[in-house]
Amino acid sequence: MTTNNGPMPALPKQEFLTVKETAEFLNVSAFLIYKLCVEQKLDHYRFGEGDSAIRIDRNGLMEFIKRRQIKKEGI
Question: CA angle at residue 21 from 5 to 60, to 5 degrees?
Fold first, then answer.
């Protein structure tokens, strides 16, 4: 997978990613990741009470990326 700035970095090997790791991988802000979670556009897990820790499953993240692909029409 590539971005406008070259190849995407490899995903960390752990099963669950933090908001910060997810943001770094996608080259976006952590704020955007929180927003996607709150708007239920990015599947995630919450662990703990109140302002609990958010974790994103690496496989779910890859599915999210696939769903966001914009394909050129008319070719």
Answer: 95
Q: Give domain status of residue 7, yes or no.
A: no
| All residues at 6 or more sequence positions from 20 whose CB lies less than 8 Å from its CB, including other chains | 30
**What total of structural domains would you count in the chain?**
1
Residue 46 has a CB neighbour count (10 Å cut-off) of 12
Which domain, by its residues, includes 23? 13-67
**Crossing angle for the helix pair 19-26 and 30-38, nearest 10 degrees?**
110
| 74 domain-assigned | no
Give pLDDT tens digits along the chain (75 positions): 455 666 766 666 779 999 999 999 999 999 999 999 999 999 999 998 877 899 999 999 999 999 999 988 876
